[in-house]
Amino acid sequence: MPVSHTNPSSPLWLFDLDNTLHDASHSIFPAISANMNVFIARVLGDGVTPATPEAVDAARLLYWKRYGATLLGMIRHHQVRAADFLEETHALGDLQQMIRTERGLKRLLRALPGRKILFTNAPTRYSTDVVRHLGLRRHFSHHVAIEDMHVHGQLRPKPSKLMMRRLLRKYGVSARRAILVEDTLANLRSAKQLGVRTVWITQYLRMSDPIGAAALPKMLKRPAYVDVKVKSLRQLAARLHRLR
Predict the structure, then answer these.
(1) Which class is domain 12-23+100-243?
(2) Cβ distance 178 to 168 under 8 Å?
(3) Most exposed of 67, 133, 184, 244 (fewest Cβ within 10 Å)?
(4) Which CATH fold topology does 28-89 show?
């Protein structure tokens, strides 16, 4: 992706993808969730009979709460290869027909000063396809997907603070100069603990992750670790003063 040359004092924007730049809850997350259930049922089964839906749900919820990502639990407890999990769970049909987003997204991103990096726990192939369909590729100087989130040989996706520190060092910015734009509160909380400024996008929160409704916040009140809460990116430019 092209690198933009910006003022050294400009912010570095770290943009999440799913349920931040587009409505993954509409049909993409349900499809990923169904694929994930099939994959986990097979892994947890006895080699002949898949595990029950109850066993699958319990495992997904446990791993999500303990590790922040179902994938990490599958790797640590079931020796699953990350590449296999990501490929099978993100095997979707006509992706372009599944994508929903607000109008004027390119203009909204262009209005924000500073360099922008796509920073997603989704796999490279899927996130690249989504960004291409959204027509946003040129707006991001870099693309950091889950395959890029290894620290000391271990996968450390968001909300890993260790991985966030490494990312900030790699791009040569202090935490204070970075702004994370996300729908997932756990990721915003860990970033804020490092001093990163935080923006919470709420308009697509019907499903905050493929795990489903269990991951939704109980209420939409702005937590203390969120600097700016907006329903839509359309509101963000008008609230930049709150991030200074």
Answers:
(1) alpha beta
(2) yes
(3) 244
(4) DNA polymerase; domain 1 (1.10.150)
